[in-house]
Amino acid sequence: MSSDIETLKAESEMNRLVSRYSTIVDWMDWDRLPDIFATDADIDFGQMFTGDLAGFTPFVSALEAGYDRRMHMFGLPRLDVTAQSGRAECTNISFTRTKGSENNDDSIIFGRYIFEGKPIDGAWKLTRLKFMLNAMHASQQPVADESMLNTCDGMQPGHPDKPSA
Where would I find the SnoaL-like domain in this sequence (predicted)? Predict the structure, then answer.
C-alpha cells in the first residue's frame, strides 16, 4: 500500500513541476527556475539551446523578453514514475506575440515536452527537459481595439495578478 501512496506522491510532484515550469516561463519569473531545476539538469531545445540551467536561464529569458504576450498550454502528461524518479511527456501549444510590431505578429507553436525529475535534497527537481517541435504557425493580424479588455501584457514577477510560487 505504501508504494501506491509513494507513486501517487511522485505523480503529483511531476505534475507540479510541469505546472510550475509553465507559470515561471509565462510570468518571466526567472529567479524561480532554480526552485524546479537541478543545477546540472540536461536541457535540450535542439540547435537553439543545449546545456544546463546556468546557460538556459539567459537563453530563455532573452527569448521570452521579445514577446509582449506568451502562453504555454500543456496537455495531460503521460507519466512514468516511481518514488525515486519520474518522466512526464506533454503535448504543448504555445502562443507568443512579438513586441513592438506594427501589426500583431503572433506565433502558435505546437510541440512536445519531455520532463524528467527526481527528489534532490528532499525536493523534486527537473533533471532533464527536452522540447520537440511539431509545427509552427506565424501570422500578422491588424491590431484590434483591445482597450476594453484586460490583456496579458506586462506579465512579470511584479504584476499584481502573478500567482505565488
Answer: 7-129
